[in-house]
## 1
Amino acid sequence: MALSGTFEDISFGELLQLLNVGHKSGRLTVWRGKDADRSEIFIQDGEVVRAVSRRERGPEVVYQILGWSNGEFTFERREEPVIREITESTEHLILEGMKRYDEWQHLEQEGPDMHVVLRQRAYAVNARLEELSPSAQSVLRLVDARRNVATIIRESGLPPAEAFKAVTELLVEGFVEEWTQGTLEGDVLPARDRLPEPEGAIDFNTDSYFSSKRQLSQRKEMAGTALAGGAGRRKPSET
């Protein structure tokens, strides 16, 4: 059995139910954008036994994808056995995902700032990343100046209340801030080049979680040019 489509044709939850009822075995690959978000879900006899993404593995990957409003998928039938890493049944995963979706909707209605778009404060983290809770570190990866708070919470894979608490932690600690330019309400903008350039001073002696090697190289080069120019101006007065 080969199957492919988009989540506009069938939701991820409906797709899992279809494979579960049919007792199918194989690999389900889901993605969106230019493979920026790509995950693989392994299914045996209709049950999800393993789920892996670039950053996570386990049930949280399934919960994250259940929060997607768009995406593509392909299912390839495979009979090779896979070591089971997920003990929850597919039915349980879907029900838990639906429960979290209901909690997210309630939170969105109650929260006044759920449509605020957040961006990382450039070079604000540096060596402080480890001070954040594991939940806040996980949520921080989704803050990209394109997702709003509601989308971040929905796609985090965390229980909504825990994800909201993590967002609050990031705001209070100054790791993220509100961003109002170059965004669309709701989901992610398709073009990554719309992200704002980082701002703020750089401590070249401290590695930053957000540091861009290209930007650091450029600024170092500019600093070196400025120093060389200053030395050249001082040289006539010294002779």
## 2
Amino acid sequence: MSADKTPRRLGRGLDALLGERRTTSTSPKPDEPGNAPAESRTVLRDIPISEIAPNHYQPRKEFSTDELKELADSIRTAGLLQPISVRSTKDGYELVAGERRLRAAKLLGWTTIPTIVRDYDDRTMLTLALIENLQRADLNPIEEAEGYTRLASEFDLSQNEIADLVGKDRSTVANLQRVLQLPAEVRKMLETGALSLGHARPLLALEDHALAIKLATEAVEHGLSVRTIEERVRQDAPRHEKPHRGRPRKEDTRPPEVRHVEDLLRSRFQTDVSLIRKKRDKGELRIQFYSTEDLNRLLEMMGALE
């Protein structure tokens, strides 16, 4: 993360997950006499890299070779400034946090690595792996959404609880989980960074997956703006699904300020919005939702839910 960026805040629930993790001390090995109970102990020691298994809760799937080489060069020059974290298993150790550091150490040919050993439960494993990547903005939207979905499905956490753990708004968590509803081809574009999250969100309003893929592909190939995608979703989708017969579609002759308000509201609520002006400054404001969860998200954003 560059120095001019404000670090992401830790979730308010992390202190409960980590306990006294901030005060690291060297302790006797587990088989030495007079040892403290495992659940209250933090151990810092060198561990053979061959005994450390990957974190199977790691949400990040892709690691840049160039970034790993840069990190390895930095570690070669300045040393490992922060040890990795592991938990004990019956076969050795499982990585909790620090996969990039571990991979860089392997590139350097290290056989051991400074390590913090603590007893973490599965939920803490996944949460720490998520937060470590989120704070460096390393996760793509699909990886982040899948991480939240695992917290929800494997540990029966609500979106409010997830948001509290990772230090984000509930609406942010809900919006990211919704991207998993996109067609596989569009999700792949998000994973690779070819398509931005801002371009992908309007496509959630489309039930026609073929059209969603078509618009996403056009956005990537022709550099379409988010606003253009929003307009295409709002105008082209009905024309694609229900072709007009006879007279061509009428041009939108509404005042520019009406269309501008619609654009602002679509951007704010991340869904399709229609503003219909009637006589004597009356009218209707229609906000679309596509599931019960989507409705709850909108109600929360409007302050209708506590």
## 3
Amino acid sequence: MTDTVDTTSLEAEVARLREELAATTLLARRAADRGEVENLMGRYMFLHNAFQDERIIPLWVKEGTPGIRAQYTNAGVYTTWESVTRYHRGRPSPVGKLILHTTTTPVIEVAGDGETARGVWLMAGTESGLTDPKVAEEFPDMYSPKEVLGKKVWAHWVWCKYAIDFLKQDGEWRIWRFRCYELARAPFEENWVSFGEKNQGAFDLDLMYFGDDGKPVFMPPADEPVRDTNHPYSPATVQQLQPVPPEPYATITDIDE
């Protein structure tokens, strides 16, 4: 009788330990997944700040992956691997140009099935460069009053938000769906309130970057119109919770559009 009781107790204890081990292993895997996703986003930003965008392309999901998309402005959405990665191809590294985008305040949720993850970030940064005075005549509001090395100077504060979905492929996390919400920007000499009042239309343009000699380079035509528009800061509007931080979820099919 005693042996039976001891055996039963031992079996129950082994079962409990197995459950505890499984739960601990799952928790460790999800914590590791979250760290890998955060590292992936950080790596993206370091490469982008150094004008190494060609090296960002392998951070995206593989060519042919269904559901890939990217939206940077209100001008449209890119929905093919080729059009999404075109954003990172051929970007120049002009002399005197500086980009320093720093991301913070991540909210990252890994799906219960471990196949996808969702994250949001805030970004505060600076952007600056030199432009040929002739080119600068087309965008007078964005430049500083003085010239440097015979060029017009644009030096901006910029604030954005990111909402990104990630997909695990071949055991590695990759960027799957990317959304940038530019919130506000302002030249160094001007505050973001007055600049935001006159700059609302710029958020609907498809400007990609300022390239060699400060010339604007525009995005190629988008594949689809936007599903919803970004609402940047304006002194005449109320701020919205956009994007909404992700909540815990079991699988992407539970929450996908």
